[in-house]
Amino acid sequence: MTRLSHSSIETTTPSREVVRQSFTLPNTEQYLLHSATREQPYQIYVFKPSQEAPPEGFPVIYLLDANALFATMVETMRVQSRVPEKTGVYPAVVVGIGYPTGEPFDSSRFYDFTMPTPQEVLDALPVRNKDAARPQVGGADAFRAFIEEELKPRIERDYSINTKQQAVFGHSLGGLFVLQTLFTRPHTFQTYIAGSPSVHWNKAMLREQEDQYTSCLQQGQIQHKLLITIGELERNHPSNMSENAKELYERLALLPNEKLDAHFYEFEGEGHVSVLPALVSRAVRFLRRG
């Protein structure tokens, strides 16, 4: 395991000689974790609070697209959890799931975050570059199994985790994965955070999964918290991202609150990417809501 390091900084000695030192996020580590169903490994990032774990263990939040968001979430957690009585943010373990790349995003996310999708649906999706090869899709079930069967047991072995306070956070396609996990494997987490979810990816399939979840919710003893967010500027997104998210929330908000505590928030003045820091801040606060 290695510390999570960032770019070097410079200090000056009395002789004014510049000494370069690496910058490290405190209480973090990273390692490659191979999956039984995937040729390439995942890059796993973990943050453990410096505070002593409560008797029941720390809450934990599993973060998708960790290459882009892990450092933002860790610093948000570290700063705000110092005064939880003022911020509402309490110490939690952050588990980031990323890829062995230096880029913020990797094309593997298209496969990991999506269900099998008919070709005619894929052809109808809005794309930025129609000449570019479309990434492989349809691996969400395998990715979900990796989290549940391989990653979670390792995290619970290495850290003091409260298995009754587990959250998953995803944005865009990651938000779609969060919703489909709630609808198809509702016992996987207790808290679900879907930022700017790509509902349009396969709207008909998601609606079928939603109906199945609603039926399950009425019959079983399930309690969940759900946060759906959108950026104000996403109202103009070609996929109708904002409208789709609001429609979904409005249906889910009709379900019994004691079974699904659903919330919606629109970030003023933010677009699909600029919304991320504000979304992270709200997400770590939502983790302990209620």
TrEMBL record:
Claim: Hydrolase is one of the keywords in the record: yes
SUPFAM superfamilies: alpha/beta-Hydrolases
Keywords, comma-separated and alphabetical: Hydrolase
InterPro entries xref list: AB_hydrolase_fold (IPR029058), Esterase-like (IPR000801), Siderophore_Hydrolase_D (IPR052558)
Pfam families (alphabetical): Esterase
Domain of life: Bacteria
PANTHER family on file: SIDEROPHORE TRIACETYLFUSARININE C ESTERASE, SIDEROPHORE-DEGRADING ESTERASE (EUROFUNG)
Family classification: Belongs to the esterase D family.
Protein name: Prolyl oligopeptidase family serine peptidase
Organism expressing this protein natively: Paenibacillus plantarum
